[in-house]
Design goal:
The chain is mostly helical and 156 residues long. It contains six helices and no strands. The chain has one domain. Helices cover 81% and strands 0% of the residues. It starts with a helix and ends with a helix.
């Protein structure tokens, strides 16, 4: 399969831009994070932008594989709509958590995000196993984020 570089770069840019804008909106987030009481296993603040950059790139590659697959357009459309919806929930989580300090509500939002990521991954799996595999680190990271979010909600 020939790589459609422009499409690939756009697919990678979309989650990176969404994450970058979310990070900009909650620009004091790492300062906030540092002063919160955190549960055990909380990583240092510098880990988050590194992890999210990698995850956004993987998500973008996964969406590219779906968009360029030879699956029926109906299946591709459904998968990409789910992908967009989970990206929407991803975008607003940091605002709820860092800007509004709604830790318990952010946790409920994150559980919804996790379910959407799972649904997206399953939808991707029906089209491309490789695309679904690219989504698994994201699902695992959001699982860990849920643990951190709930721990912070309880401790603060």
């Amino acid at each position: 399969m020939k790589i459609k570089w422009k499409t690939l770069l756009i697919c990678i840019a979309i989650p990176l831009i969404a994450g970058g804008v979310a990070g900009f909106i909650s620009k004091n987030s790492m300062g906030t994070f540092e002063v919160l009481d955190k549960p055990p296993l909380s990583p240092p603040g510098w880990v988050f932008p590194v992890a999210w950059t990698i995850l956004y790139i993987l998500m973008g590659i996964a969406s590219y594989l779906i968009l360029t697959s030879r699956a029926p357009q109906e299946n591709i459309g459904r998968a990409i709509r789910l992908y967009g919806l989970q990206l929407f929930f991803n975008f607003f989580w940091s605002f709820l958590f860092f800007n509004l300090n709604l830790y318990f509500f952010a946790f409920i939002w994150l559980v919804t995000l996790w379910l959407l990521i799972l649904a997206t991954t399953i939808s991707f799996l029906r089209i491309s196993k490789i695309a679904a595999y690219f989504m698994l680190p994201y699902l695992l990271w959001v699982t860990f984020a849920g643990y951190l979010n709930l721990g912070i909600a309880i401790l603060n």
